[in-house]
Amino acid sequence: MKFTFKKLGGSVIEDLGQYLRDYLAEYPDTSVYVGTDSQTGGAWTRFVTVVALYDEIRKDGVHYVFTKIAEKREKDTFSRMWKEVEMSMEVAEYLETALEGHIARLSPEDVLAIKKAEMEKPVNERDPSKSSLGPHQTKLVNIDVDINPELGGGHNKSNVAYVAAKSYVTGMGYRVRFKPWSWASSCAADMQLKKGSGKRRRKKKE
Q1: Residue-wise pLDDT tens digits, 21-48
Q2: What is the pTM for the complete model shown?
Q3: Domain residue ranges of the chain, discontinuous segments joined by +
Q4: Residue by residue, what is the 3-state secondary structure of 19-75?
């Protein structure tokens, strides 16, 4: 994998797969989420991808590691959103191999049970990412996408990539969350972008 990941303190992780395997050995009830966010300024667009680890039993916060790159500014919102999706998918595909046997893989029956439980909740309490699950979404990690599924006229510009992103990620067998549920991208990755900019970021998309 071409990306170099770091811990929050800035130290480089030499082998991301081994780092995560060691973490999962210590905290076996951890779920893994991958998310990317971006920020455009001047002639450049900065991208941050995080791998976020959440202990489903302890529920005492999230540990995450991250990678940053900068590329020439994307000309349109769709291209930037698609680049975010591509970065997350590249990392997720790497982890699909690196974490095999070190994290529990959901069976099709497990996935449908999650969907059934979500559908039994009141409509206003449902997480769409769970209530729309299909039996093929059994990959090891979850993808958080910083795209708003709702149309909003001049707002929610990221929506332009929603259908394409959802079709691609779910078609590859991943469980995917969009705004406002996608905290790995909209919170963790966004936080690293703000740190790097040295000032509070003005959102370019919603």
Answers
A1: 999 999 999 999 999 999 888 889 999 9
A2: 0.89
A3: 16-99+140-197, 106-138
A4: HHHHHHHHCCCEEEEEEEEEEEECCEEEEEEEEEEEECCCCCCEEEEEEEEEEECCC
